[in-house]
């Protein structure tokens, strides 16, 4: 698959403030890549630089093999979808979608065919003559996306497009955007601070923090193999605790402050005696019943068990004072009562080593 976008050490500074540290990023044709991070992480700055809305302090930007660093936004062949839809309130839906085609001086018949085609694609052919204010938020966002799709841009840039929608509508739109991405093979660069949105929609995620790239990978790679404590914490609930490397090999053996040991997945990146953290996701922890065996076993006291529909959150305070969170599918099987002694278990393959610090 060919390369669609590349940034090479692109940076942005405002006087002494680094809005974006040197960033190198590559994106494949047809890929759905999400820039994910908290406010101030640099994700919107990077999108703005790629779009040509902001001039970089240094570095280069390439689109379809062409250097566009110094080109204006209008010549980069990009489409943009914003959170506020940016539809013309006085124009009909038909004319909103037709607008970029009229700007390109396409013929009337060609415009009509293209507009009708994308209205069918988004399942809204019946709203062509309505005004934007007559549509719901979700419908307006679909029209904004259709207005991009209709002129077939090289890349569609989406900046927090679902931020103004309620939870149910947001989830519906996630499915709709992903459907269009797959059906049309379009390339999408998407910005969000919503972890679930990024995990459910993306081919790859570029996690950003403190104006730099923290980690790039598939959703599964970032979730199960985070590269840092920040990545582990930002991509979902996690159990993280300090330890020391005792030995490495087919498995890595760690030592806790209380003298107990933890087996984790093989890790060649840390020497013996190194101070590290270990991490395991809550859904990988199991409440052990009689007769069950696990590579890692910890005993403690049940603090609480919270029913959350399809699963139950179980908080356990271990004998060394550490608190671990487990998630179990709700099965109807009775749980131990608060204050009762319980045992947690997990496999070495489900626990990983993280570097110390944030």
TrEMBL record:
Any Pfam family the entry gives: ABC_tran
Keyword ATP-binding annotated: yes
GO molecular function terms listed in the Swiss-Prot or TrEMBL record: ABC-type transporter activity; ATP binding; ATP hydrolysis activity
Keyword presence, Cell division: no
GO cellular component term, pick one: ATP-binding cassette (ABC) transporter complex
Compartments where located: Cell inner membrane
Family: Belongs to the ABC transporter superfamily.
Protein name (record): ABC transporter ATP-binding protein
């Amino acid at each position: 698959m060919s390369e669609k976008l590349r940034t090479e050490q692109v940076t942005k500074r405002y006087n002494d403030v680094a809005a974006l540290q040197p960033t190198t990023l590559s994106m494949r044709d047809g890929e759905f890549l999400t820039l994910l991070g908290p406010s101030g992480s640099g994700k919107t700055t990077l999108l703005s630089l790629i779009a040509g809305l902001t001039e970089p302090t240094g570095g280069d930007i390439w689109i379809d093999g062409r250097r566009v660093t110094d080109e204006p936004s209008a010549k980069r062949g990009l489409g943009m979808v914003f959170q506020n839809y940016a539809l013309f309130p006085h124009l009909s839906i038909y004319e909103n979608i037709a607008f970029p085609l009229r700007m390109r001086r396409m013929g009337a018949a060609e415009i009509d065919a293209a507009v009708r085609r994308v209205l069918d694609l988004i399942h809204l052919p019946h709203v062509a003559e309505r005004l934007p204010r007559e549509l719901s938020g979700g419908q307006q966002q679909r029209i904004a996306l259709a207005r991009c799709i209709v002129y077939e841009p090289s890349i569609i840039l989406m900046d927090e497009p679902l931020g103004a929608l309620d939870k149910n509508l947001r989830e519906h739109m996630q499915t709709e955007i992903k459907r269009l991405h797959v059906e049309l093979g379009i390339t999408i660069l998407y910005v969000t601070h919503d972890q679930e949105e990024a995990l459910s929609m993306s081919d790859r995620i570029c996690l950003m923090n403190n104006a730099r790239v923290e980690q790039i990978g598939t959703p599964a790679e970032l979730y199960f193999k985070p590269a840092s404590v920040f990545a582990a914490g930002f991509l979902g609930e996690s159990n993280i605790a300090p330890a020391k490397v005792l030995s490495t090999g087919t498995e890595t053996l760690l030592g806790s402050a209380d003298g107990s040991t933890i087996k984790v997945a093989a890790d060649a990146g840390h020497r013996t005696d190194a101070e590290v953290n270990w991490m395991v996701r809550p859904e990988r922890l199991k409440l052990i019943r009689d007769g069950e065996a696990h590579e890692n076993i910890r005993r403690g006291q049940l603090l609480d068990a919270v029913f959350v529909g399809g699963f139950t959150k179980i908080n356990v305070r271990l004998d060394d004072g550490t608190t671990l969170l487990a998630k179990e599918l709700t099965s109807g099987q009775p749980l131990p009562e608060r204050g009762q002694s319980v045992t947690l278990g997990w496999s070495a393959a489900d626990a990983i080593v993280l570097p110390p610090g944030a």
